[in-house]
Structure prediction request, 286 residues.
Amino acid sequence: MGQWLHEVLDVEQVEQNYFRGIATPQGRGRSFGGQVIGQALMSAIRTVGADRPVHSLHAYFMRPGDATQPVLYQVERDRDGRSFATRRVIAVQAGKPILNLAASFHGDEPGLEHQYGMPDVPGPDALKTDEQIGEDMAEQLPADFLTWLRSPRPIEIRPVGLRPPFSREERAPEHAMWMRATSSLGDDPAMHRAALAYTSDYGLLTTCMLPFGKTFTDPDMQFASLDHAVWFHDDFRMDEWLLYVMDSPWAGGARGFNRGQIFTQDGRLVASTAQEGLVRNTDLNG
Prediction:
């Protein structure tokens, strides 16, 4: 994979407050939502001093992107205060907005501290990757899903438990997975935060469908991200193992709400996520 993820997130400045993100390498069909979020965030980061790292982002998806085409990002510099800075980003393809993102930046300062503890789960060395599980179960899996598993990806995933389509067991809407970039991302903390924003879209939306044994490969299901939020709590490296713990408090009305917490291997809670998405069962909707 080389520097695939680094190249995708390293947006090019084409004019003041305008940036271009490259198309997905070997991409086809709809853009991966995490890639658009990551590029939009990096565009905003490029307009803020390094002394103010991003601490939160909120994004709304408006239209599906085209993975074979680059994306233009327009940044609005809303505020540069003494402690915080805020930015808004519009992602544009073919003259139409596909995503709006707002990001907030905050300089380091001392504060009172607490955090949730990391759950006790097997470490990544004791688990198989998605690709390895897929090869073990190849005869039982949909062909399109196997093709997706076998395609080059910049993130290595090691799930703690089996989820659809690996297992159709109906269970509580919660799961966890270890994740890391497959190549070094260098030492710029901004690149690691953009890479986490990219990766935060993996697996989150389908959490709300675990009680029904459904996933994005099912022909009777339609999935789409509607909005996505990330809060960055502390520094980390995306090219080292992180544990992504996800749950879903609610689903209904063809939408599902999902939450996530991201821990380092030594137990630090470094980010939290939330996402609502379209989870339409076409059999129920005619």
In short: The radius of gyration is 18 Å. DSSP finds five helices and twelve strands in the chain.
